[in-house]
């Protein structure tokens, strides 16, 4: 299946992916209206040290420890995509405790959210990839572990 | 031709069903469920009382779960005996069910110490099952004074769940601190402060000498009046089925990495099973939901002739009260690194080039990066731990590890 991959050599650390993510998942058609003057809760986060930066979002693991650990049965894997049922999530943070990538974080209401590849929002494909100015985030098929 | 039998219908059983079906989609599965409920999220019973979920949303899986997985479920009955020749399991109504492979996922039962005068208390409850929560809900009202015996995870989640529905909640425990099984003194004090700010009262380092009607006479001499008593002292694993056939039982039913017990064709998973805690190397019961699912899944795969090993079990808990979260994992063994603010404590424990365990109160962001280092036994010499201990970030891993984590399928 297609997943989101990052190229840390090309990432400029501009954080635009975070804004595109928050906008794509806002349900709004106007980016300024959706984001201006508000804290944003993106599902992708740029991690950086002195030397490098790159964006991290859900890896959609083959053997997802978050799905197996969710105490509310809110996380599931369907056609390779790991999704969260926000209606079932109680905000216990167990997924935060177990995700090796730090890919889950709470939204403004304390309910967990994560990258679902924009497959069910108006963007239809990962907004972080579409809007990355330096093609440091790609959406493609890579079958093998490296 | 296989005939799978699962004793118990909790999350370990659900894991077992999904494990079996990942290998074998043909043969029949029978589930023996003492509780008259489809598999539900037991840790959510306090959230139910708090109004954060409801009975429909507490279902662990969809309504078609058993049908979709070709399972028949026997509700309201208990397995009382395993027979090995011929291979049958006897139920409490005398029925005998044939099996080729069993998973014992029988969980645990509340432990009630022999308090003097407990029989004089009319309104008393356990807090383990959905039925316990539903009964407690009937027993409380806005005027109730509730005494909870036990300041562990179960007792305190109960306290949080009912705090806004009763007049007062007092929690007592023999231990001198809250959550004594997972928190040290200072971290416990921080959690206690937050609970007290939300009206929960504590009586720690003390226990009931006797009960008389609606009064607890404490060993310290204190007297606590209450309308409703909740007993959350501890649990005992349900191991008798295994003991009775002479299988290896320590505190729990002893299992190997395949969740195989000492008896042929019999597996065990969840709160009744005792596997290896890789953070200490000791065999112990890790009565946490993730473990139950993973053990159940592994048992299921192996029962169906597949090969799965579960060798990553560590104690780990994420527990929050009134918005403040505490996360703990592994063993608190070795050298301690600490960061503190007024409202948070971070403690990381390192030994032999490994992260062995941690306690994080009020600073849980990306904690899974630390947890994975314990589970995967990542050598500290392979990461920039100076940086990592301050902030949980994958940037501190080597370029090779980062390439593995982010460059391909994981």
Q: Top keywords for this entry?
A:
heterodimer; A: 146 residues; alpha+beta; Alpha-Beta Plaits; 2 domains; two-stranded antiparallel ribbon; 5 helices; 8 strands; B: 410 residues; alpha/beta; FAD/NAD(P)-binding domain; Enolase-like, domain 1; 3 domains; 5-stranded parallel β-sheet; 11 helices; 24% helix
What would you note in describing this structure?
The complex is a heterodimer of chains A (146) and B (410). Chain A has two domains: 1-57 and 127-146, Alpha-Beta Plaits (2-Layer Sandwich); 61-114, 2-Layer Sandwich (Alpha-Beta Plaits), CATH 3.30.70.20. In chain A, 20% of the residues lie in helices and 21% in strands. Chain A contains five helices and eight strands; from the N terminus they run βααββαββαββαβ. Chain A has helices at residues 16-24, 31-35, 65-69, 94-98, 127-131, and strands spanning 2-6, 45-48, 53-56, 75-78, 81-84, 105-106, 112-113, 137-141. Chain A is globular and about 40 Å long. Chain B is an alpha/beta fold. Chain B folds into three domains: 3-109 and 236-303, FAD/NAD(P)-binding domain (3-Layer(bba) Sandwich); 118-233, FAD/NAD(P)-binding domain; 331-405, Enolase-like, domain 1. Chain B is built from eleven helices and 26 strands. Chain B has a five-stranded parallel sheet with strand order 3-2-1-7-19. In chain B, helix 1 (11-21) runs parallel beside helix 8. The longest helix of chain B has 15 residues, at 289-303. Chain B starts with a strand and ends with a helix. Classes of the chains: A alpha+beta (146), B alpha/beta (410).
């Amino acid at each position: 299946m297609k997943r989101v991959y990052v190229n840390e050599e090309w990432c400029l650390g501009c954080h635009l992916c975070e804004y595109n993510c928050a906008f794509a998942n806002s349900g709004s058609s106007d980016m300024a209206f959706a984001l201006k003057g508000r804290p944003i809760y993106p599902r992708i986060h740029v991690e950086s040290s002195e030397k490098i930066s790159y964006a991290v979002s859900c890896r959609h693991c083959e053997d997802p420890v978050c799905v197996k650990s969710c105490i509310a049965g809110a996380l599931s894997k369907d056609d390779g995509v790991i999704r969260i049922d926000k209606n079932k999530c109680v905000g216990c943070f167990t997924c935060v405790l177990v995700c090796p990538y730090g890919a889950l974080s709470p939204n403004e209401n304390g309910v967990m959210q994560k990258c679902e590849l924009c497959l069910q929002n108006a963007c239809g494909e990962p907004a972080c990839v579409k809007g990355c100015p330096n093609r440091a985030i790609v959406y493609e098929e890579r079958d093998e572990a490296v | 031709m296989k005939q799978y039998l699962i004793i118990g219908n909790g999350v370990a059983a659900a894991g077992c069903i999904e494990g079996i079906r990942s290998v074998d989609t043909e043969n029949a599965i029978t589930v023996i469920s003492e509780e008259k409920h489809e598999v539900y999220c037991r840790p959510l019973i306090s959230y139910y009382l708090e109004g954060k979920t409801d009975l429909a949303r507490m279902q662990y899986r969809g309504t078609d779960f058993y049908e979709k997985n070709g399972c028949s479920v026997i509700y309201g009955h208990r397995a009382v005996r395993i027979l090995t020749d011929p291979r049958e399991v006897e139920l409490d109504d005398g029925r005998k069910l044939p099996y080729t492979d069993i998973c014992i996922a029988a969980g645990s039962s509340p432990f009630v110490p022999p308090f003097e005068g407990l029989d004089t208390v009319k309104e008393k409850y356990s807090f383990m099952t959905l039925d316990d929560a539903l009964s407690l809900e009937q027993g409380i009202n806005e005027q109730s004074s509730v005494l909870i015996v036990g300041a562990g995870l179960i007792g305190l989640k109960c306290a949080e769940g009912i705090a806004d529905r009763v007049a007062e909640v007092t929690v007592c425990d023999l231990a001198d601190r809250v959550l004594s099984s997972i928190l040290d003194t200072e971290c416990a004090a921080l959690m206690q402060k937050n609970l007290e700010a939300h009206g929960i009262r504590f009586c720690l380092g003390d226990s009931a000498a006797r009960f008389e009607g609606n009064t607890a006479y404490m060993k310290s001499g204190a007297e606590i009046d209450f309308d409703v008593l909740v007993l959350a002292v501890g649990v005992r694993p349900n191991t008798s089925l295994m003991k009775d056939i002479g299988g290896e039982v320590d505190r729990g039913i002893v299992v190997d990495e395949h969740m195989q017990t000492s008896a042929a064709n019999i597996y065990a998973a969840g709160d009744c099973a005792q596997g290896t805690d890789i953070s200490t190397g000791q065999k112990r019961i890790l009565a946490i939901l993730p473990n139950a699912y993973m053990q159940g899944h592994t048992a299921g795969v192996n029962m169906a002739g597949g090969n799965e090993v579960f060798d990553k079990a560590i104690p780990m808990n994420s527990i929050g009260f009134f918005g403040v979260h505490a996360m703990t994992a592994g063993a608190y063994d070795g050298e301690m690194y600490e960061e503190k603010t007024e409202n948070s404590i971070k403690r990381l424990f390192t030994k032999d080039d490994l992260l062995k365990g941690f306690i994080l109160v009020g600073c849980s962001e990306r904690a899974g990066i630390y947890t994975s280092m314990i589970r995967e036994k990542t050598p500290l010499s392979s990461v920039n731990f100076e940086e990592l201990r301050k902030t949980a970030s994958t940037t501190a891993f080597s370029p090779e590890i980062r390439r593995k984590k982010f460059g391909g399928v994981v």
